[in-house]
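In this section we turn from sequence analysis to structure. A common task in structural bioinformatics is to predict how a protein folds when a small molecule is present, because the ligand can shape the pocket around it. The inputs are simple: the amino acid sequence and a SMILES string for the ligand, here adenosine-5'-triphosphate. Study the lines below before reading on.
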Amino acid sequence: MTFERNKILGRGTFACVFYGTLNGIPVAVKRIQLHDLEESIQHREETAMRQLDHPNVLKLLHVQENEDFKFLVLELCEATIDDYIRRRYMADNMPSDCDALHQMASGVQYIHSKGFVHRNVKPENVLISSTSGVLKIADFGFCKPFRPSGSFSMTSSGPRGTRIYCAPEFLQLEGKSKEERDTIRCDVSIDVFSLGCMFFCYIKKGDHPFAKPGSPITYAIASNIVYGKKYLHLALMPDHYAYEMIDGMTQTVPQDRWTLERVIETLTPHLTKT
Ligand SMILES: Nc1ncnc2c1ncn2[C@@H]1O[C@H](COP(=O)(O)OP(=O)(O)OP(=O)(O)O)[C@@H](O)[C@H]1O
């Protein structure tokens, strides 16, 4: 594996992603600085990715490590959904909106079926594949296995990076002591909430369900999420195929949220026939 230090594809909190090659084939190389991470989470991303194989989940091709860094060699993508929403990326072969939502839901449903919750679903973490315009869920640095009951404890002190796609129960961890956090159990519906917010941003090209249409993305969104202050009706007609679904996915109470099975069933009749 080789990578080009001056060809940076993106940066995250703990990693830098470079253009590279593996056996002559173009790839993305995610370089993770090991010293920045607690030992228990240094290998989390690799462990999860090794178990995942789905067209809508980014594929791990190879792993290399030295004393300082872990290198995850990943299939190369062209852009992120964030680039697409902000109109920094245009392509002829993007799927229809409904096909795109179906792909994202299928990827997350598969991740759950393998016993993992992603916990960081957001537009920067959905990639657009180079060749076919297929969408791929990426960045498993925050994902966690869950019990057969479907629940997991939130040992984390709260969201990492942007908070505007986080479920209210996740945002409420901020400021809590470790003892308090240990008593809070979450379930996979935290990913459904994030996906619902992202669906809306995707369809409305940047608007957010918890912000007034056309208003800037601000800190107020996180507070609106916690208090269930939604503006869906100002941006989408109630008879739009995605209105009820996004409303159901972004319910404040986790038990009230739609399942991904229901989301996929709702989207299927609207898919582009090939
Ligand atoms: N396979 C890939 N192909 C092309 N670009 C990529 C690829 N993987 C990541 N990137 C780019 O690098 C950025 C950072 O990658 P990634 O989200 O995996 O890093 P991270 O440090 O885990 O981020 P975060 O701070 O969200 O946890 C992505 O948003 C994307 O722009």
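Residues 97-113 form the longest helix (17 residues). As an exercise, try to locate the residues that line the adenosine-5'-triphosphate site and compare them with your own expectations.
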